[in-house]
Amino acid sequence: MNKKNNTRFSIDNRIDYALLLPAFLLILIGLYALYVALTHDHPTSATQMLVSQIMWIVVGTLIGFVVMHMDSRVLWKLTPYIYVFGLLLNVLPIIFYDSATVASTGAKNWFAIGGKNIFQPSEFMKIAFILFISRIVVNFQNNLAERDIKDDFRLIGKLLLAILPVAILSVLQSDFGTFLVFVVILAGVILVSGVSWKIIIPAVVLVAGIAGGIVALVASPNGQAILEKTSFATYQVQRFEAWLHPFDNMQTFSLQQARSLISIGIGGVWGNGIGVANVSVPVRESDMIFTVIGEDFGFVGSTFVILLYFMLIYRMIRVTFKSNNQFYTYISTGIIMMILFHVFENIGAAVGVVPLTGIPLPFISQGGSSMMANLIGLSLVLSMKYNQIPEGIMKQASIENGRDRLQAKKAKRSQKRG
């Protein structure tokens, strides 16, 4: 390949800037929203917490830069070890946790030392899980000559075994909200893997029926009693009740939900202006960060943020469709499902569409673990294009190699004649 083609095949041509742009803008918006929330709710430690968030962004970007350059063959070999390491990390919060955090959230999902929360292992486990189930699907499909519905059940069985340890750890951590993310990731990968609709449609109907049944039970006092006698904790039932009747128990468990709706509501169409946070919303800096955007910039600003997420997801899908690496295709699918569900659940909870689960808003909410996991996920998608030689260059290289071989043959013929 000549010098001209080497120039074309540069780092600038291998980075999807249209994918980076929405993520960059979301991070900037997140820093602004975090500053507003912290200065109103935690004025004495606002600077320290904001600097800490910036440091996590820098560290996540550096790790993401390394991940983007990682060869898919190396990632394939490392995936089982990453998965096991992720499971081991998720054992830590069960042993080392902060009692005050558990009392307020009802979940042991933070690894804490000396009463200080360090990080959330489940955020990194999401990436490890995506890598592992992607490897399972690719390995399974590559060993099939033909495929029928029995093979689909075998694949689903393997994937269910992969999520089983995660489910057990989620039960021990009492973290049902985070486990939902793993379920959605798994569902997305199964859907893309080519599993028969004869399996998918009944599964969707079953899940919808279970969800509808839970909502129906929560809506009645007798139903709530039944749920509490099963695996549902009291705080989980209260979250459903707060979702259905946010203004009935504003002094107790529905305070956060009610104030979130009020905060977004008073923002109106255009918002109340920069730096405004008149309504005090609990945990505004993380779970309820969208209320800052809604109150300050109103419907217009909130819509702009949602459009940025749509742009981000759209670019991810474009990169996925253009990929010629099957392993990366499933990884990207998992990342897309993870971010999409986070956005839907967080914003949906803030505006009262779905119950609260404590899931952070990607690239915006406070939290080093979430930020780093999202940046690593973004880097894995960027890696699909970065490590893929463009078709045009491959075609040009093939033509030039053909010319070189032809010239070599002509040279040999000339030497024989000579």
Query: How many domains comprise the coordinates?
Result: 1
Rg value:
25 Å
In percent, how much strand structure appears in the residues? Answer: under 5%
Mean pLDDT: 87
Total strand segments: 2
In N-to-C order, the SSE pattern is HHHHHHEEHHHHHHHHHHH
Coarse shape: globular
- Spatial ordering of strands, largest sheet: 1-2
Percent helix range: over 70%
Classify the secondary structure makeup into a structural class.
mainly alpha
What is the overall number of helices?
17
Low-confidence stretches: 3-9, 389-402
What is the terminal-to-terminal distance?
A: 30 Å
Q: Main β-sheet: number of strands, strand sense, barrel status?
A: 2 strands, antiparallel
